[in-house]
Amino acid sequence: MTTYFVAVITLNLVCFLFILLSGIQHKKHHYYSLAIVNLLLVGYHFLSWRFHQASTVSEAITLSRLHTNTVILGWPFIIYTFGHWCRFRYTNLMVLAFGTMAAIFTLFNTFSDTVLRHGNNPQLVKFDNLFGEPMSLLVGEPSMFFSLFHAGFIVMAVVLLLFALRFYQQQNNFISLALTICLGLSVATSFMSYQIDSGSVPLFYTGGLPFTLISLAFALMLSVSYRRNARELDHQRKRQGEFELALRRLATSAAGEDADHFYIELIATLYQLSPAEFIFIGDKCADSETKIETRAVLKHGQPVPNFTYQTEGTASQEVLDRGLHSEKHITAASFKCREANEAPAFASYTGIPIENSSREKAGLIMMFFSRPDGIDSALQQALQVVSSRAASELQRDQLEQKLRSMAYYDYLSNLPNRARLLEVLNATYLDATRHRQNALLVLLDLDHFGEINRKYGYEIGDQVIHILGNRFAAYRSADVFIARNGGDDFAILLTNLQADYTALLHVHWAALKAIVSDEITIGRRKISVQCSAGAVLFPEQIESRFDVISSAEHALQQAKERGRNQCSLFAPEMLAIKDAARELEEDLSSALQYNDELSMVYQPKVDAHGRLTGSEALLRWHHPVKGFISPAHFIPIAEETGLIHELGKWVLRRVFEQIRDWQQRSVPLYRVSINVTASQFAEGDFIHYLLAQRTEYNIPAQLIEVELTESSLLFDSHKAIEQLKTLQNTGISVALDDFGTGYSSLSYLRDLPLNVLKIDKSFIDNIDHQQSKELVRSIIAIGKHMKLLTVAEGTESKEQVEMLKEMGCDYFQGYYFSRPLTPEAFEAYVMR
C-alpha cells in the first residue's frame, strides 16, 4: 500500500510540474486546469494513505472529510479541462453546474454532523487488506448523500464520454482513446470505492488512479511533441541550407533549348522547398486576358498535363490583382480549373505574377497547400526568384511561339496545318502508348468539292474552306484537336477517350457532319456541302505511328466507296490488305521490268457451227513465290496505282509481237481482241500509241479488236465517240464488253461506233432462269436491230450453247469450246 501511494503521488507531482510548464509555454488554459487536477490528485492520494493509517475515529472522520473534498473539488476542473480541449459549446455551463454541485457537497461534507461518504455513526474498523497489510476504514450507516455522492461520478462519466466522442469526431484519436479508457477505469474504481465505503471489500482507495494514468499519458504525448519540435528545428536548419543552395541554383539556371523542362525544374525546386501539393506556372492566353494556359504543372510532386482555365473568381485573379499574395484559409471552390474536382480541398495558397519587359502581368506561379501553415517568408523569397527567372524565359518563349504559329497554322482556314498535325499526332501516339490509352484520328473530306471550284471559281472555294475552318475552330476543345490536312481535307484528333470509342465517334461524326452540311452563304450564293470521313483508333489498331494517317485515309476511301456522306472506321484487316496490295504493286512493277513472269494466253471465239472466228488475248501472271495470281486481283491494283498504263502498253507490244510471229511463219490469222481499261482509254495518248504500235509491227487493222467496258465510255461521251471513230476508220473493230452489267442506255448505245456486243457471263450462268433468259434474248435482239455482232461469254455447257443458238447469238466464247491457250497451244488449235 505504501509503495502504491508513494508511486502515484510522485507521478502526479511530475505530471503537475510538466503540464504546468507546458501550459505556460503554449498559453493553453486547459493545461492549467489539468495541472490543478494533478495537484488535487496528490492531495487525494496522500489523504487516502493517511486515512487508511488513522488510529482514532475522530482522526479518520477528519481525514475522510478532507479526502472527499479533494474528490468533489476535482469535478469542475476535470470538466473544464476536457470540455475546453474539445471545444464543446456548453463547457462553461457544465463547469458552472458541476461547480455549484461541488460547492453544495463540500459545504455539507465540511459542516454537517454526518460524514458524507460514511453516513451516520461511523465506526473505525481495523483489518488486514488483500495484501496482508493492516489498515483502517470507517464503516457507518449509509445516507441519501452517500448515494448522491457516488451518483455524481456517474453523471461526470457520461459527460466525459460525450467529450471522448467529440474528440473522435475531430480526429483526435489518441485523446479520445485515452479518455475512453480512463472512463472505463474510473467507473471500475468508483464501483470499487463504493464497495470499500460499504465495508464489502477490504482494499484501499484507488479512485484517483485513472486520472493519474491519463495525466501520465498526456505528459508523455507532450514529451513526444517536444522531441518532434526539436527534430523539426533541426530540419528547419537543414532546410535553410537546402533553401540557400536552391536559390543559388535558381539564380544561375538556364533554359537552354528545352523550355518545358526548364519550367518543370523551376516548380520542382519550389516543391522541394515546401509542402505544396499542387504547383503550376502559366501565362496568359493570347486570345483572352482572363485565361491562363499552364506551362508546367506538378501534383503531389508528379508532372501532370497542362490545361487552360478562366481566372475570374479564382485565387489566381487575386494574385494577378495584388501581386505576391497568400491566403491561409480557402476552399476548393476558390480554384476553378480543370483540376478542381480532382484536387483535395486546399487550406491555403500563395502565388506571384510574372511580369514581362513592359511590367505587364504576363503569367503567374501558384502553389496550393492542404495545411494552412505551409507558407513562410523563405518560400515567398523563393517565389520571387523563380518569378524573375521565369519572366525572361517566358518572354523568349512567347516570341518563339509566335514564330512557330506562323509556321504551323494555315492562313486560309485559321487552323493548324499538316506540319502541326504531324507534330501533335506523333506526340499523342507516344503519350497514348506510354499511358496505355487510345486516341481517334478522323480524316474528313468534302464530297465533290472540285465541282464547287469548277462551278463557282477557286475564290469561292477558298471562302468555303475559310468558313468551315472557323466553324471547326469553334468546335475545338482540350480533347478535340482539328487541323487542315490539305486541300479540302480536315483532320480531327480525339484524345482522352473515357467512354466507348464507337459511341464517341458516332457523336462527333454527327456533330462534324452537321457543321459541314449547314448551308454556306457567300454573297447571294447558297452552297451546300456534304462530307465523308474515315477514322482509326490508335495505337490499338496499328503498330506504327507512321501508319496512322494512311490507315485513316484507307478508311476514308472505304466510306467513299460505300456511297459517301458517311464515316467508316478502320478495321485491322484493312492494314493487311493494304500491305498485301503494296507488296503486290511492287512485285507487278518488278514483273514488268524483267518480262519473265507475265505472259499472254488466247481464248478462242467460235461461230454457231464451232468454227474458229477469233480469240481474246488474256494476261496471266505466274509469280515465282505466290504462284498464279488472278487478273481480277492485280488489275484493280494496277488501276489504283497507275501501273495499268505501262501494263497496257506491255500487253499491246506482246500481242503485236505474237501476231507478227504467226504472220511470218504463215500461221492462219484470226482477229485478236485486246481489253482496254477505263483509265487507259481516258488517257489522251493511248489511241495514238496503239495506232503507232500497229504501224511499227505492220499488223493489219482487221486482225485487231479493242474491247471496252461501258464505264470506259462514260467519262466524256463526245471524246469517246471521236476516239472510237478514229479506230474504226483505220479498220480496227470495237467491242462493248460486259454489256448489260453497267449503265446500259439505248440512247448513248445508238451514238457509239461499235461492231460487237459481248453478253456478260453472269447472264449466261443464269440463262435457265426466265428473267435472265429474257434479258439475253433482248440483248441479242438489240444487237440484231443495231446490226452488231453478239458474243456470249462464259459458255460452259451444250444446253447453254443450244439455247443461245436458238436465240440467234452469233459467236461463243467459253470452256465448252476451249480454255484460254498458250500461244503454242493456240497455234496447234488453229492448225487443227
Global outline: elongated
- The level of helicity is 40-55%
Beta-strand segment tally: 25
Low-confidence stretches: 332-341
Radius of gyration: 51 Å
Superfamily at the CATH H level of the largest domain?
Answer: EAL domain
Counting helices, strands and paired strands, the structural category is alpha/beta
Give the end-to-end Cα distance, rounded to a whole number of Å: 139 Å
Strand content: 15-25%
Give the averaged pLDDT, no decimals.
83
Q: Regarding CATH, which class of the largest domain?
A: Alpha Beta
Q: Give, in spatial order, the strands making up the sheet with the most strands.
A: 17-18-20-21-22-23-24-25
CATH topology of the largest domain: TIM Barrel
Can you name the CATH architecture of the largest domain?
Alpha-Beta Barrel
Largest sheet features: 8 strands, mixed, barrel
Number of helices: 26
What number of domains?
4
Kindly summarize this structure in a few lines.
The protein is of the alpha/beta class and 832 residues long. Helix content is 54%, strand content 19%.
Structural topology:
Elements: H1 2-26, H2 29-51, H3 57-85, H4 91-111, E1 120-128, E2 134-141, H5 144-169, H6 173-197, H7 209-252, H8 259-272, E3 278-285, E4 288-299, E5 302-303, E6 308-310, H9 315-322, E7 325-327, E8 348-355, E9 361-369, H10 377-408, H11 418-434, E10 439-446, H12 449-456, H13 458-475, E11 480-486, E12 489-494, H14 501-517, E13 520-522, E14 525-527, E15 531-538, H15 548-561, E16 567-569, H16 572-594, E17 598-607, E18 612-623, E19 627-629, H17 631-641, H18 643-664, E20 671-675, H19 678-682, H20 686-697, E21 704-708, H21 717-729, E22 733-739, H22 746-751, E23 756-759, H23 761-765, H24 770-785, E24 789-793, H25 798-807, E25 811-813, H26 823-831
Parallel strand pairs: 15-16, 18-20, 20-21, 21-22, 22-23, 23-24, 24-25
Antiparallel strand pairs: 1-2, 3-4, 3-9, 4-5, 4-6, 7-8, 8-9, 10-12, 10-15, 11-12, 13-14, 17-18, 17-25, 18-19
